[in-house]
Amino acid sequence: MSSTAPTRTPHANSPEPHAATAPAVAVKGVGKTFGATEVLKGIDLTVPAGATTCLIGPSGSGKSTLLRCIAFLEEATKGTITIKGDPLGFAEAANGQRTRLSPQNIRSVRSRIGMVFQQFNLWPHMTALGNVCEALVTVRKMKRKEAEERGMAQLSRVGLEHRATHYPSELSGGQQQRVAIARALALDPEILLFDEPTASLDPELTGEVLNVMRDLAGSGMTLLVVTHEIGFAATVGESIAFLDHGRLLLNGTPREVFGEPRHPRLAQFLETYLDRGAATLL
Amino acid sequence: MSFKLFELMLWAAGYTVVLSAISIVIGLTIGLCVCAAKLARSRALSIPATVFISFFRGVPLLVQLLLIYNLLPAIGISVPSVVAAVIGLSLCTAAYQAENLRGGFNSVPKGLLEAADMVGLSPWQQLKRIRAPIALRLTLPALVNEAILILKASSLISVVGVIELTRMAQNLSASTYRPLLFYSVAGGLYLVICWTVAGGGALAERLTRTSRA
Ligand SMILES: Nc1ncnc2c1ncn2[C@@H]1O[C@H](COP(=O)(O)OP(=O)(O)OP(=O)(O)O)[C@@H](O)[C@H]1O
Ligand SMILES: [Mg+2]
Fold first, then answer.
1. CB distance A30 to A78 below 8 Å
2. What pLDDT does B198 receive?
3. Residues of A in contact with B213 (CB under 8 A)
4. For chain B, which terminal residue's Cβ has fewer other Cβ atoms within 10 angstroms, N or C?
5. What pLDDT score does B50 carry?
6. Which residues from chain B sit within 8 angstroms of residue A133, using beta carbons?
7. Which helix (H) or strand (E) holds B57?
8. Residue A230 alpha carbon to ligand 2 centre in Å
9. Residue spans per domain, chain B
């Protein structure tokens, strides 16, 4: 996949799981504190490869923080995260001691993860195509022409090849988010993380982004999606994780999680969606 | 006014432009370094930068010029007055430009850098490809403004004996007894220079703007 093959760090305690069978992401005992506030309280979560996992939960429950730890934009204060079996950021020795991995190792493991943000975060001084090609040229050292061909292919994958020369300020929110998805896809990530990708979009633009994500899910990519779109989670998600107050309360198939009898906290959380008609989708 | 005298005024205006331009370029370079030092995590860098900025923003330029002009010979460095003048202008504008640049760098949304991080850009590549271009675009209007201020403030260097536009007008007024004429011509020339800079700035903004709408 990526041109820079990650160097495996041998585990002292457990035998290295084979990459083909290892889950896309394995989160073990991850805790995160900001100052005195404990935001994540020992999360264990397995994200299966080739499937869509949706992370739901009330506001402030720690969804973004968990996703950002998996992206290594935030460093977990406890526990370990592995990407297809390779430790991300820290390796844990037999005695539970965490040691920080080398920057090269961190970069190479991280390069297998793509991320799509709520605020799109497109670079305003580059065109749509420029945004998509930037890392191909700067990081992957591709020739400009080759990168642009690849960039155009990604833009057409999200239905925006006719907007290639537009700047972000000339695109609608939905189009900007699709460019951001194309930018992440261009690097051929093994796992694509989404943090509320439609939360800052008008309702009529939400659909076009969700459709692109549905296509990606159908193509067998590994997606981990933090979302408030319960309908999307219930229909596209193959695995649902419900986070509440920094703990993973539920994790299973949509049927297991949403089906009766419901966990009281989940039932309470879903109440807030009933008036939006999402319940009919369940 | 004879053509000969007008030519002298034009020559002085050119001198003002050249000295200001040199000061702005040197000032921008120093300003970038001071800005980098001020943004650095190490206090050994950020504290001197803060001191530099507060001194050169807090002391009147006229006083700075007289200080430098008198200080250099006192510590055994003899330089032509024009060099002292350029040093003074450069250091003064550096302090302002450092602050403008810092504002620009701090206004780059954090999310844009996280996005760069996620696609694997190294810190240096992020600076070169994302932070600096966005920060400079955000700072451009303030930098043009600063250039215009320096052009006008350069009239102060006449106090250390540099014959730039204002000093030339003064000299010619004294020798011809026609101050109104020469100060009017000087004012007109300053206006033309500043309009040109402002126009250039507007053009630069148009060329670097990121939408054709
Ligand atoms: N950088 C930070 N510093 C301090 N506290 C933080 C920081 N980031 C998040 N928090 C706190 O951590 C808690 C969880 O935040 P997080 O953003 O992960 O929640 P969330 O589940 O994504 O919520 P939402 O649905 O509103 O996006 C919140 O109480 C928040 O205030
Ligand atoms: Mg969030």
1. yes
2. 95
3. 169-170
4. C
5. 95
6. none
7. helix B43-58
8. 15
9. 3-212
Task: Give me the count of residues in chain A.
Answer: 282
pTM of the model: 0.84
Q: pLDDT 10s digit of each residue in chain B, 213 long?
A: 688 888 999 999 999 999 999 999 999 999 999 999 999 889 999 999 999 999 999 999 999 999 999 998 889 888 889 999 999 999 999 999 999 999 999 999 999 999 999 999 999 999 999 999 999 999 999 999 999 999 999 999 998 889 999 999 999 999 999 999 999 999 999 999 999 999 999 999 888 877 654
Please name the member of B112, B120, B208 whose beta carbon is closest to the beta carbon of A123: B112
Cβ(A249)–Cβ(A268) below 8 Å: no
* A178 token code pair: 């699709």
Domain covering A13-112+190-282 in this structure, CATH number: 3.40.50.300
Class of domain B3-212: mainly alpha
| DSSP 3-state of B203 | helix
What's the CA angle centered on B119, arms B116 and B120, to 5 degrees?
Answer: 90
Q: Domain ranges for chain A, please list them.
A: 13-112+190-282, 113-188
Residue recorded with tokens 């009281």? A264
Q: End-to-end alpha-carbon separation of chain B, Å?
A: 49
